[in-house]
Each structure stands twice: as C-alpha cells, then as structure tokens.
C-alpha cells in the first residue's frame, strides 16, 4: 500500500492534509490515538486569520498578504522564520476560501485581534470556530470513508509508536498499537500530532527544553521565573509530543523547540483552582474589551499586546489576576466564562478598595520592548533527504487554525505528489492480501446501530436517579431528555473529562447546545444512551425535571425510577429568596435563580412571585407563550406544578381594557377615516395600553410632525387620462401584493385586544397586505403563523438582542414559519423618553431599568411599559453586524429607521435589500425629521448616483390618508407602513376594525389615483408632488378636526 498517504493525527492539520490528498486523487489513511478526532483545534475560540480574502474585500478591509507577513515578522522578532511566515501569510486567503467553498463554512464575520494591522480573523456565528471548522472536515472525511473505502480510511484508538524505515533509513510507514495488538501501515507519512504541552512525565520534552526556554530573551530577566512544567496547560491530554519523538528517533532535526508558548490567560474553575488542565481564555475575550487587573485591582498591561508581553507583565505582578468584562461582554461569552466567578466592576472595585477610574483608564503600552512567544515548532528537513515523511509545524503565534490548514494542505499536496511519482510501482508489486492482513479494522467513529430501537423501549429515570451518578467513575448526564452514561467516554472527550464531570448527575442540555449541534448526539453518542428522562418516554426534546434544588425527587417515586408525582406548591413556597428562587408559570415550576440578574426589567419583578404562581403577571405583561423557549431558558424548568395549569395564582396586576362596548360607540360602517379609530380607542383601551401606544418622545414634536409633514406636500394632478380602471398592485422584495401598504411592527398587541397580533395577521390576509411580525409581539410566532394563510406574505421585524444567540433562534423559528424578509430596527440603541408612558406605572411591578442606588436598593417605579420590555436591545449594533446577520439568514435584509441620506448610501454600498425611512413613530429622538422628508432626501441622493433601483425604499410614520400613501409612492417609496391606526382599530373593533382600515385606505387611494391621472402605481412620478414647503419646519402645523381630541395635553402636576 505504498501508494497510500498515512496521516498521523486527527486534528484540523491532519484532516486538512487528508482532504488535500483526496482532492489530488490520492489515497489516505488517518490514524488517531483518541476515540474521537478533533484535537486541540476544536478549542480555538477566536477564528482563522486570512489576508486579502474575498470576505475582507466585500467589507472594504484593505488588508493584503504582504501586510500580514509584515505583522507576523514583527511579532516573531528574532525568532522569525521568513520562509514559513511567507508560506503561512500568502497561503492564508486561499486557505480561508478553501474552507468556505469546499466545505460550505460560513466565515463571514471578521474581527481584529492583537498585533494585526487590520481585521483579519474570520469566524462564523458559532461560539467555537475551531470546533465548527474541524468538525466539518471530520464529517466530510467520514463520509469519504463510508462512500470511498478504497481511497479513504480512518482508524481511531490507534497509538502510533514508531516510524518504519528501510535499510537506507528512509521512512516507509508507521507501526501502531490498537487494543493490545500491533499493526503497520506502509506509505508516505504525514505527522500532524500537535505539540507536547500536556506531557508532564520525567522524560517529557517540556523538561528537556526547560533550560533553553528559561534563557530566551522574553523570560530571562523575570525574577523567580516558575518552572515550565509548573504551568497548567489548556492542551488536551493527548498532546504528549508523540510525533516529534518518533521523528527525532529516526534522525529528524527540529528547530525552535524551546519556544514553548506561555499563554497569559486561562480560566480558573473556582471549585478546582489548582487543576493542571484549564480552559483557554482566548484573545477574543480581551479583543472584545475585557481588561486584566492584578491582586491590587490595578491594570498592568495593554490587553491587546502580544502574548509574551502580557504573560511577562503578569509574571512581574501579584496574583491572582481577574479578567474584567462588562455586562454585554460577559453575556456574549457566557459559554466561556459561566463557570468562573464574576462580579460587577463597581462591586469589584469596592472589594479591592480601588477607584473605578483605575480599571477604566488604559495602561501604558510598553510591549515594544518584549520579544514574541513562538509555539514549539518542528520543521521538516529542508534537505528533502526523507522525501516520504512530512512533519507539520505546530501552531505559531495567534495563528493556530491557519497554521493547521495552510501547512496541512502543503504537506498533503506534497505527499500526494510523492506517492504519484514514487509509490505506483510498489503497489503493483504488492499483493493486496499481504497488506490487508497487517491492518486494524477501520472505523469512522460513527455510532453503531444499537440506537435504532425505539426510545419507548428504553427505561425512564427520574432526575433523582440520574443525580446519584455524579462521579468520574460513574457519570451520567441528561441531554435533550435522554440519559447518557458517559463514564467510558470521559478520557476520550476532546475537551477533557472535567468539562463533562462538571455536569455529572445533571441536565447538561444548555452547555451542550452552547457548543454542539444536535446531530453530534445521533452520530457519536447513541451507544452511550441508557434511558430517557421520566415523563419523556417518547424521547422528545425536553428539559424539565422533577427534582428539588438538592437533587431530591419532588414527586412520588414508585421505586422503579419512574416519576408518578408533581412538585407541590408547598415545596415551591420554600424557594422564595434571591439565591433560591422558584416560580410557577402555566403549571410549570421554574428555578429562575440564575436568571434574575438577566431579566430585562430587573429581578424585583420576578422576586415578587418567588415561591408563588406568577402566571397572571406573566400573561398580563404581554409575553408570548413561548418566550421561555425563544430565550433558550427551557433548562430552568424543574417539572409540573401541583394543580397543573390551574394552580392558584396571586393576582397583583390589572391591565383590563375599558368596556369595548362603550355607550355610543359608532357602528364600524360609520367610521369614515383613520382618525376616528383613534377617538374610539381612547375610550376603549386601558390607561396603560393607551399611553404606551399613543406616546411620543419628549415634547412629541416629531410625533406630530410625522403627519403634519404630509400637509406641506401638494399634488400636481394630470388630466385627460383614462382612469376607468385603476390597479393598485405592486411588489415588495419580489413578492406580489394587492396594494403597496403594509402593517408595520407594533409591540404588545394584547394591550389593545385579547387576540393581539392575530387580529392583524387575519386582516392582512383578508386585505392582501404584508404584515411585519414584531419581536415584541404578545402572540407567539407559532400562533401568528397559525392565523396566516398559506400564501400570505409575512416579514419579521427584529430587535437585535445583546445575546445574539437569542436573535438567531428567533430568526430560525420565523424562517420555519414562512417569513420572507427581515426588517432590522436600527434607530433604537437607547429608548426615547416617552413621558406620557413613563407617568403610568408599569403595573406588574416597577422595573429596575435605570441606575439605582446600589447600597439603598431603591427602585424607580415610574418608567412605564416601554422601558420595562426593551432592555434586551443591543446598543452596540453597528454596520459590521450586517455580516453577522448575513451569516445567520439568507433572507432579504432591510434596515428600519434610516434618517438621513448618508446612511441610505451606506446601506446601498453594503448591498442591503432595502431601508425604511422612519423616526420610529416619533418615539425615539424628538425633532428627528419625518420619514416622508427623509424619503425625499434619500431618493435624491440615490438618483444622483444612479442607485434608485439598487435597493427598495420604504417609509412609515404619520400616514392617515390614502393621499399620504400616494405622495410617498410618487416620491419614490416602494411601499408605505401603517402602524398606530391598525392598533386603534383593533382596540375598538378587533379584526374587522383592521380590515376596515385598509378598506378605507384602498378607497382613498383609488379615488386619489383617478384624480391625479394615474392608472397604475408606476404612473406616480415625483413631478406630481410639490415639495417646496416640506422643509419649512417653522410653518404652523395645521390642526386636524379630530386629532386634538385624540392627543391629550400634558397635565400640570397639582402638587410639586
């Protein structure tokens, strides 16, 4: 089998080499000593570097391989290896694009890390890009083994022990051990076995290079420098330098072996502070803005400096060290730091007795005096004396994933070329029987078919039973309702045993989902299933249990491991403190202790119902029924409450609407314009609902200006046009609509009507208009989808959550239910001051959404509904997040809230599908211009560049007449959004009222089209509208006959 290439090591480098051999037409066998491939590559959290990539060019990042080479050379300093660096940096763009194109990997998010001149670190939306990339290559190689066994083989649990050589000393194969037996493989050899950071034995390479390591320039001046073997490692237990030792045994030379990298930051598990293996705290944490402080609470370095510089400064300061992150950063990297002790910076400062100023000011950047840290690098013999063995370099500074791919591909292509030129004759002379007898049985690490039996045949276990198996010698975990005995898998887990043992005897669904996809379970873990969680005999995905906080069963255990009871309300009542908080919602018991600090409206609202049933308050808040699932909080559910969904609930809130059958309410047929719906709604709605819907920001000038601006637009009709037939049909983002009007997003529909947004969905279907499903809808996406017709056009309005995974789940859920586009709200980094709303207390309980006195624990109870529900919105949203969003969805993306031509041009340059000219209904920045005025400015700027057809432009705000719609369409809008009138109509008349809104608008548009001389929407031209007075904001606003009764004046306080 000399025409085969033997790859030793199943990490990213090994798989990159193996795939390159296959793509070159060669044959490859991959050996890995672990039961599961992946290696350290799966732990990489920052991304893969690339300069001059297509993705960078799309983002207008002027990076080049030469700049990357210069950066890397500067970082390497005296240790620079020019040929290696040139190969690495100039091969970076092809490597990234190879991953994108050959393996369909989304690497469209680009960030800038330390020592980089430009953003060049590529990643997808997944939290562990190394895992995402490596697993994809693993899956594809396993597919090749399955479908092309004559060209690809994988042998796991195969420990390579020595390289085979011929009489001339040339490497001709590998000898390895598997299950106590020795096997051989013959062919060209690629060693991709990684480093030796986890080898603490007496003859380890770490001990062999200790003296030389201590003499390196970056360490020799540090007093009391610890021994190299005293440092913990973030490497897996498999990184013991096997490949390097085998190569040295046959005469291979090495260079830079003493350059063992000492990474500055590893995460300390408070429960095991002295553990020898730790999780890496990657540059991504410091790159996001996190800072380092020493035991005295002082910053001591530039956190974005090179690794050896930061490490050197740490070794000169007093431990322990803390990595300080703000709330947004800690939520973004919760998956990485959740098991580490975190405190708010203000409390941290008080703990260390330092001023906040100390940790908010940058430290001196003196890293220019420090030399770089280079990982241990073994270089292939440059003499090419051993043509048939290729030793890959270990990862170099901050380029670990890139090293693996670039050098893996180089080794793979070289080995494939060698076998083509030198191995064919050998194959012809070697009978197949003689080679196959010396090989171990191949495996692809996929599970056997033992799981093919129905889940219903598996035993059911309570969480109390699972909790008994909580040690390394007896380790069970629950993932998505299935019970796994992973005791035998612990040492084979690529992430180490500790990360699994931390959840021994517990439900590990949440941490699993943070890192892995569900198909990983089916593919690799079915052999470890021992049962299902009680109450889930069918094996459905669940995350509820019936255990108490101490792991004891809260139900009646019949003795056979099957739950027969529920959690009593008396038991729930015991858990009524901030450090132990349970509540009941819709018959389910939730342990919300860890969620209190993350609740958008503050913990006080939840604490009012600690140990009680909070269903009434939950429903009154307008939460969708599936909000728990949407936020990924299913794991907080402990089980069913006594009494189920009928459990008693303390009623402490009231958002009842006024009697909708008010005396004198006119019949719907007598409502002739949209203002009249407002007058009726004012009498029908609760005070809380009315002020939430009707309020604008500050003095409400923009609120009034939105409609007043239409009064300053005058029409220029054409005559003698045949308008016997008028067609209002148009398109939105390629979808045919009956008329170019849509229901724009409006939150909390159930404040107006018990059916909430369902009224809007049904009416939109009946009248043939598009509806935007709001992020803050009272109804669930599933409920709205169920109310829609099969051919109905629906879009999603998105507020981007500071926890991006929540937004991603919402998008995916909406995509499954048929939405056709996403409208991203971009004008709400902070909520406007809507004083009318703020004067009415949020009736559930005052939220702690503004800064309060920490020491006194005071809560401002006068912030209103809007501020209580909007704290999750991410204020850091920026233009760079467009690529993140494109990595999440392929649907058209529209920016909602564009307020000037400059931003419209930026949106067009970045290839957005559309924008909405809008000031958020006058609810954000007061004195922001009306959407219609912005539309005129935007279309002029687009036409000046010939971009008027580059994207679709929409407008909303203040639309109350059909002629308002026609004015906007004539000025260039593709469609016009209507918001408040639909809510007011729904409050007074339900679905029929909303249908009546669009009946009126349609009638007025048809009449206006005829009188303007337009047969079709395309006949409406800018020349038909006079805009000379539009920008004259000082002109007195005309009064509407009914609006003065709708908008109530600000009341003077009787007592100050």
Summarize the structure.
The chain is an alpha/beta fold. It is about 35% helix and about 15% strand. Helix 30 runs parallel beside helix 31.
Descriptive report:
By secondary structure, the protein is of the alpha/beta class. The protein is globular and about 100 Å long. The protein has five domains: 4-194 and 404-421, FAD/NAD(P)-binding domain; 205-347 and 388-396, Flavocytochrome C3, Chain A, domain 1; 460-533, Flavocytochrome B2, Chain A, domain 1 (Roll); 569-640, Cytochrome b5-like heme/steroid binding domain (Flavocytochrome B2, Chain A, domain 1, Roll), CATH 3.10.120.10; 684-843 and 889-1026, Aldolase class I (TIM Barrel), CATH 3.20.20. The chain is 33% helix and 14% strand. The longest helix has 33 residues, at 980-1012. Strands 29-30-31-32-33-34-35-36 form an eight-stranded parallel β-barrel, surrounded by six helices. α1 packs across α6 and α1 (12-23) packs parallel to α16 (400-422). The termini are far apart. It is built from 40 helices and 37 strands. The relative contact order is 0.08.
């Amino acid at each position: 089998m000399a025409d085969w290439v033997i790859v030793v090591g199943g990490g990213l480098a090994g798989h990159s080499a193996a795939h390159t051999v296959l793509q070159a037409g060669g044959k490859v066998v991959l050996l890995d000593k672990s039961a599961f491939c992946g290696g350290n590559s799966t732990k990489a959290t920052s991304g893969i570097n690339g300069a001059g990539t297509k993705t960078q060019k799309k983002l207008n990042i002027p990076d080049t391989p030469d700049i990357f080479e210069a950066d890397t050379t500067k970082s390497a300093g005296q240790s620079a290896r020019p040929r290696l660096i040139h190969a690495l940096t100039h091969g970076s763009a092809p490597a990234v694009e190879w991953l994108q194109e050959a393996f369909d990997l989304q690497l469209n998010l680009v960030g800038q890390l330390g020592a980089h001149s430009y953003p060049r670190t590529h990643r997808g939306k997944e939290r562990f890009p190394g895992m995402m990339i490596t697993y994809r290559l693993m899956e594809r190689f396993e597919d090749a083994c399955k479908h092309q066994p004559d060209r690809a083989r994988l042998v796991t649990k195969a420990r390579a022990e020595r390289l085979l050589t011929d009489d001339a000393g040339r490497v001709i194969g590998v000898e390895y051990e598997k299950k106590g037996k020795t096997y051989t493989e013959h062919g060209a050899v690629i060693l991709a076995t990684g480093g030796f950071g986890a080898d603490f034995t007496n003859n380890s390479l770490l001990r062999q290079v200790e003296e030389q390591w201590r003499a390196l320039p970056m360490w020799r001046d540090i007093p009391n420098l610890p021994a190299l073997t005293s440092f913990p490692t973030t490497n897996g237990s498999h990184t013991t330098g096997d490949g390097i030792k085998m190569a040295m045994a046959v005469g291979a030379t090495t260079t830079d072996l003493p350059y063992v990298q000492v990474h500055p930051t590893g995460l300390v598990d408070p429960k095991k502070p002295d553990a020898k293996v730790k999780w890496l705290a990657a540059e991504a944490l410091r790159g996001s803005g996190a800072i380092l402080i020493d035991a005295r609470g002082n910053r001591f370095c530039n956190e974005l400096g090179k690794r050896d510089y930061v490490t050197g400064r740490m070794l000169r300061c007093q431990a322990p060290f803390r990595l300080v992150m703000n709330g947004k950063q800690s939520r973004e990297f919760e998956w990485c730091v959740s098991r580490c002790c975190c405190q708010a910076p203000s409390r941290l400062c008080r703990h260390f007795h330092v001023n906040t100023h100390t940790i908010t000011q940058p430290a001196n950047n003196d890293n220019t005096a420090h030399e770089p840290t280079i990982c241990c690098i073994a270089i292939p013999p440059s003499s090419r004396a051993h043509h048939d063995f290729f030793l890959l370099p270990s990862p170099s500074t901050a380029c670990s994933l890139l090293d693996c791919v670039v050098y893996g591909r180089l080794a793979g292509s070289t080995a494939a070329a060698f076998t083509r030129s030198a191995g064919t004759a050998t194959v012809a002379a070697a009978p197949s029987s003689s080679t196959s007898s010396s090989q171990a049985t191949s495996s692809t690490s996929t599970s056997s078919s033992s799981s093919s039996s129905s889940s219903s045949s598996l035993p059911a276990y309570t969480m109390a039973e699972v909790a008994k198996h909580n040690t390394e010698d007896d380790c069970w975990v629950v993932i998505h309702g299935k019970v796994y005995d992973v005791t035998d898998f612990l040492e084979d887990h690529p992430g180490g045993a500790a990360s699994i043992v931390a959840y021994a005897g517990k439900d590990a669904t949440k941490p699993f989902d943070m890192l892995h996809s569900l198909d990983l379970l089916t593919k690799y873990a079915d052999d470890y299933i021992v049962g299902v969680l009680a109450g889930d005999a069918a094996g459905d995905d669940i995350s509820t249990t019936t255990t108490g906080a101490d792991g004891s069963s809260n139900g009646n255990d019949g003795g056979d491991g099957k739950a027969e009871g529920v959690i009593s309300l008396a038991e729930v009542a015991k858990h009524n403190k901030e450090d132990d908080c349970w509540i009941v919602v819709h018959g389910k018991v939730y342990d919300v202790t860890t969620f209190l600090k993350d609740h958008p409206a503050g913990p006080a609202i939840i604490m009012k119902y600690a140990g009680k049933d909070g269903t009434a308050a939950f429903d009154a808040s307008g939460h969708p029924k599936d909000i728990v699932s949407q936020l990924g909080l299913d794991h907080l559910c402990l089980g069913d409450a006594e009494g189920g969904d009928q459990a008693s609930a303390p009623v402490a809130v009231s958002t009842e609407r006024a009697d909708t059958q008010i005396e004198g309410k006119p019949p719907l047929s007598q409502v002739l314009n949209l203002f009249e719906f407002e007058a009726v709604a004012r009498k029908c709605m609760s005070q809380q609902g009315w002020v939430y819907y009707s309020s604008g920001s500050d003095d409400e000038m923009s609120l009034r200006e939105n409609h007043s601006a239409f009064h300053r637009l005058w029409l220029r009709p054409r005559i003698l046009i045949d308008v016997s037939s008028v067609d209002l049909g148009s398109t939105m983002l390629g979808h045919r609509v009956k008329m170019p009007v849509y229901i724009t997003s409006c939150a909390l529909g159930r404040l107006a009507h018990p059916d909430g947004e369902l009224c809007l969905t049904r009416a939109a279907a009946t009248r043939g208009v598009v509806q935007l499903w709001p992020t803050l809808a009272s109804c669930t996406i599933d409920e709205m989808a169920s109310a829609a017709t099969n051919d109905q056009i629906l879009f999603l309005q998105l507020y981007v959550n500071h926890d991006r995974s929540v937004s991603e789940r919402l998008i995916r859920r909406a995509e499954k239910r048929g939405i056709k586009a996403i409208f991203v709200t971009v004008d709400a980094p902070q909520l406007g001051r809507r004083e009318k709303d703020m004067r009415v207390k949020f009736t559930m309980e005052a939220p702690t959404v503004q800064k309060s006195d920490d020491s006194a624990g005071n809560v401002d109870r006068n912030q209103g509904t809007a501020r209580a529900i909007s704290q999750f919105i991410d204020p850091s949203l920026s233009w760079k997040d467009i690529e993140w969003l494109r990595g999440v969805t392929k649907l058209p993306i529209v920016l909602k809230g564009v307020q000037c031509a400059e931003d419209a041009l930026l949106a067009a340059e970045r290839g957005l599908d559309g924008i909405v000219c809008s000031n958020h209904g006058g609810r954000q920045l007061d004195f922001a211009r009306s959407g219609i005025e912005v539309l005129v400015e935007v279309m002029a700027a687009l036409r000046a560049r010939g971009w008027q057809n580059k994207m679709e432009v929409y407008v909303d705000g203040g639309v109350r007449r059909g002629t308002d719609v026609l004015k906007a369409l004539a000025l260039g809008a593709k469609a016009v959004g209507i918001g408040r009138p639909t809510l007011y109509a729904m409050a007074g008349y339900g679905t029929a009222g909303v249908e009546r809104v669009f009946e009126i608008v349609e009638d007025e548009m048809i009449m206006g089209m005829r009188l303007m001389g337009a047969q079709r929407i395309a006949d409406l031209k800018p020349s038909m509208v006079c805009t000379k007075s539009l920008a004259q904001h000082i002109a007195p606003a005309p009064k509407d006959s009914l609006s003065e009764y709708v908008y109530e004046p600000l009341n003077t306080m009787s007592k100050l």
